[in-house]
Amino acid sequence: MIDKASFKSLEKATKDSFFKQKNLIKQVLAGKHVNCRICHQVIVFEPPKKDKTGVVRCKKGCTDIELDMS
Ligand SMILES: [Zn+2]
Predict the structure, then answer these.
(1) Which helix (H) or strand (E) holds 29?
(2) Which contacts of 56-65 are long-range, i.e. CB under 8 A and separated by 24 or more positions?
(3) Nearest to 30 by CA among 18, 19, 44, 16
(4) Residue ranges of domains in the chain
(5) From the CA of 41, how far away is ligand 1's center (Å)?
(6) What is the pLDDT of residue 70?
């Protein structure tokens, strides 16, 4: 069972990473040069193909965020 304190910190971490992710997507879509925090390769935007969603990802795939374009 998770105690209240650790649950709170977990919640905060999720919020933080959600915010960071949004910010990262914004920057990449604005054409800014952003590097992956893990492998330090440049992160690029791959536009959606057919019925697939667009993704923001680095070469190695450790950053791989699917975009909800709807
Ligand atoms: Zn990476």
Answers:
(1) helix 4-29
(2) 56/24, 56/25, 56/28, 56/29, 60/36, 62/36, 62/38, 63/24, 63/36, 63/37, 63/38, 65/21, 65/24, 65/25
(3) 44
(4) 4-66
(5) 6
(6) 58
pLDDT digits (tens, 9 = 90+) for 9-45: 888 888 888 899 999 999 999 999 999 999 999 999 9
Task: State in Å: Cα 51 to ligand 1 middle.
Answer: 25
Q: How far is the CA of 32 from the centre of ligand 1 (A)?
A: 16
Q: Which tokens hold the place of 68?
A: 């909800």
- Please report the pLDDT score of residue 7 as a whole number: 83
| 34 closest CA partner among 55, 17, 56 | 56
